[in-house]
Amino acid sequence: GGLRAGPGQDARPPPAAHAQSPAVAARGGSSSSGGMAKRVLPLPRQRSFTAPIVPNPFVHPRPLSAGDKLRVRLAARAVLPTVCFILYMAVPLLPSSAYQTSCESEPYHSVRMIQTTLSCITRTLFFVMGFQVKVKGKIASLLEAPVVVAAPHSSFFDAIISALTGMPSVVSRAENLSTPVFGTILSSIQPISVSRQDPDSRKNTVAEITKRALSRGQWPQLLIFPEGTCTNRSCLITFKQGAFLPGVPVQPVLLRYPNRVDTVTWTWQGYSGTELLLMTLCQLYTRVEVEFLPVHVPTEEEKNDPTIFADRVRQTMATALNVPVTDHTFEDCRLMISAGQLTLPMEAGLVEFTKISKKLNLKWNHVREQLDTFAAIASASKGGRIGIEEFAEHLKLPISDVLRELFLLFDRNGDGTIDFREYVIGLSILCNPANTEETIQMAFKLFDADEDGTVTEEEFAHIIQSALGVPELDVSMLFKEIDANETKKLSYDEFKNYALTHPVYAKLFTTYLELQRYHSGMLDEDGIESPEAKDSPVTQSAIPVSEAIPIARNKVCPKGNEEDNSSTSDKKDD
């Protein structure tokens, strides 16, 4: 089906497939799509495209129960004095913070005492808010580990690590620096600001991180949350490479919040920051565990490849936390927001962007455009998934064996629906490779029965009806959509332009040809079913050839089977 075997996979077809077309083999069992016998691909699905263990790490996992909400309301009366005390404690921070902010562009040494003061006051603030902090492990010095990486990042309360490590510099969003009071305090620790709107921000941030990490103690220690966004702590998502590009030793730090009621998790789907702050203040106490793991000194391989460095540190932290790793990243959050704007469930936009973009060489903008198309197809369905009916309606074709075959190739987990992740993978692996100039030329010649260089609606309808086995099929709407010039004849350019923007049809066409060859291979020269075919599991489970797909007889698929004696590899090349 257009898939190549990945590392560790057996690319050889199973024995039962040798008597069949290389593109299709018997799957056995019944399909969720109209009772058609399922078929397996001789090449296994890429294991690396398996759906993640944690489908959505950006949703709050446990909403408050009715009893918890009642307790929060009763405790809210005690919140006001706590808030007043927090503001009172924050006032002394402002003068010292403003003084340190003036030293922003150069490393400072004479104001380290102010850092210690900030750390003590910050610890006091967390104590007043009811935090009970348990520290494990040894905190590495600046020379031992110029960079501290903390995960999982799930809340603004994760800032407790700054107080424990002596207020190191952090990498923070540029918007945070403009926040009243908090922005002034944040500026005092000489942060590296990141602007997601500035195209040069990433390059400048990496350069600044590298400069400070290699300063041999001239700049303060760096605290970085390599995930780059907040999750629900159910897994560790992709680590950004910024902390690992300098190739210096890093100290991994783990965060845990072992509380019965979760009032700290701040994700893209869940409570707002204000609601979480108030609910946390209403708790008698909030437990947090901070564990400092041994310093990870990079090998030469890790120094030369920050991706390997980041992955190994992440795996070490995931093992200690006993959670899985996934390839989600901040770009998935952007797709989630876009999915919500398109009236899809927000989680419909999750595709594990890091994995998809690397393996399929896709840019975010391209995936975002595909989300628009997917939303248009899935708009009539519930749950943000495409069923066989929506698939057929989008292609303006009836449900047929050929269409079911193509649908099954998209439906990677066999649940009878196509989610956005499967749609993106299907377009990239199945449709786009099939949508070549050669395929388009072959298809046009097949439709152009009289070889006059144009395709009439009658010629177009004849092949479509034959391919789908629906003699009375009305294809006028599809023909008009392709006929951009409204000449009632399709030129090759019109045909090609439509095919290039609708790659699913290319795979539908090649699937049709594969099924033709498969059914042709089951007949001998006189059109009688061969003895081998009778014993084939496909023949036993599939619809009889005479009742399935009429085989077109033309210059592309001539009458008779001239390839009966060809090898499997020859048919695969065809």
UniProtKB/TrEMBL annotation:
SMART domains assigned: EFh, PlsC
Family annotation (InterPro entries): EF-hand-dom_pair, EF_Hand_1_Ca_BS, EF_hand_dom, LPCAT1-like, Plipid/glycerol_acylTrfase
Pfam families recorded: Acyltransferase, EF-hand_5, EF-hand_7
Superkingdom in the source lineage: Eukaryota
Region (Disordered): 1-37, 526-574
Biased composition (Low complexity): 17-35
GO terms for MF: 1-acylglycerophosphocholine O-acyltransferase activity; calcium ion binding; lysophosphatidic acid acyltransferase activity
Residue ranges of domain EF-hand in the record: 398-433, 435-470
GO cellular component annotations of the record: endoplasmic reticulum; membrane
Pathway field: Phospholipid metabolism; Lipid metabolism; phospholipid metabolism
Family annotation (Gene3D superfamilies): EF-hand
Family: Belongs to the 1-acyl-sn-glycerol-3-phosphate acyltransferase family.
Protein name: PCAT2 acyltransferase
UniProt source species: Columbina picui (Picui ground-dove)
Organism taxonomic ancestry: Eukaryota, Metazoa, Chordata, Craniata, Vertebrata
Gene this chain is encoded by: Lpcat2
